Amino acid sequence: MARELALRILYWFEQGNGDIKQIIKKVLEIKKYSQADKNFTKKLVEMTINNLPQIDREIIKVLKNWKYGRVSVIDKLLLRLGTCEIVYFNDIPYQVAINEAIEIGKKYGNTESSKFINGILDAIATASRSKKGIYESSNNK
Fold first, then answer.
1. Domain boundaries, the chain
2. Which alpha helices (DSSP H) does 1-141 contain, by range?
């Protein structure tokens, strides 16, 4: 639930619908969500927004034969959330972050979203575990 809420918040923000703090407040007040969901949603959104340039760079590094501008909004937001979890949330196993993004992609994305998200996030997770540097191209391994 928290990740879907984070997706909704980032979607509103991406569409230029105001200040991120106000969007978070509005979305989390729509229904009665558990405090744990609210806390995780807020932390995930804020961490993603605060590190957005770096997160986007990491996604772009692993894209092959695809321009970032061509990625659908939903897929881009799920990649950002998944990348944020993989890179900045050490207490979340990367497999969980990838699986959650895939499942949400199946629900809200297009027919190819889950495969695309899986491939990109798996490459980011593999690179992030590399001892030679957080993110390196496959040519440098």
1. 1-50, 51-141
2. 2-14, 20-30, 35-50, 52-62, 73-88, 94-108, 113-128
CB 114, CB 107: distance < 8 Å? no
Q: How far apart are the first and last CA of the chain?
A: 37
Calpha distance 137→62 (Å, rounded): 7
Rounded to whole angstroms, the Cα distance separating 105 from 88 reads: 21
Assigned CATH topology for domain 51-141: N-utilizing Substance Protein B Homolog; Chain A (1.10.940)
State the CB neighbour count (10 A cutoff) for residue 116.
Answer: 20
Whether this prediction's pTM lies above 0.85 is answered by: yes
Residues with pLDDT less than 70, the chain: 131-141
pLDDT of residue 133: 46
Three-state secondary structure call for residue 68: helix
